[in-house]
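Researcher: Good morning. I'm working through a list of sequences from a screen, and I'd like to move beyond sequence-only analysis. For each chain I'm collecting a predicted structure so we can compare shapes side by side. This is the next one on the list. No need for commentary yet; just the structure.
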Amino acid sequence: MIVVTGATGQLGQLVIQALLRKLPASRIVAAVRQPEKATSLAALGVTVRQADYTQPASLDAAFQGAEKVLLISSSEVGQRLPQHRNVIDAAQRAGVQLLAYTSLLHADQSPLGLAEEHVATEAYLAASGLPHVLLRHGWYTENYLASVPPALQHGAFIGCAGEGRIASASRADYAEADAAVLTLPDQAGKVYELAGDTAYTLTEFAAELSRQSGKAVPYVNLPEAEFKGALVGAGLPEPLAGLLADSDSGAAQGGLFDGDRALSALIGRPTTPLAEMIAAALR
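Model: Good morning. Structure tokens for this chain:
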């Protein structure tokens, strides 16, 4: 039995779908905070169990009979470590044979502020003695596609990534890789650095957007503080704006690049091209 936490999230739903292409639904458990939001998963034959990262008792119930658990990192930046600890401790109590954790690309040497809680979680996992595998995700292309509508509206794509190369892939690509690892034997102790096959700068991203949209959308590189201010001005909460600006700054230092193609090797096909994803976003 494989339990997927955070199963109603954007990544979690895709992991469930990928697992269903490999395993019968009877072997898959969707662990979710609000089961009423998981009716579409239940309709697929997947077992839905209530699980809240902040409620250890709910995790104990959700992990009953689990052989493997996928810990999808919490979306609550700043609260991740205590929440992840609860999941790891519950997995230990349940006698789970493998815990897979979605960490950050090159977390142990990443310049991104996002890495801090991932590194702390990895250290807690290592100290726990629980058999585990690290799925270090690079950037989701969707993170930048979200900026396409305002970029088209204002005639500029803004950021502070400089000429840093970004090896992103689709969220579905990462989900497929996560599902593959969960169904392969002998994964304990492995670390996967997962990233897209090809990398681009935001200047190149903007050029592709311009080509496909037929509108001139240049990339405008800003100082980090100015980019954060622009995001706040556009209505983003300050913590999220700061996170995005810090991540762009980290990209400028190479924090979102990897050229080893471990992701495409796991999924047995090339990762989804940027041009294809921009085309889908423009439809």
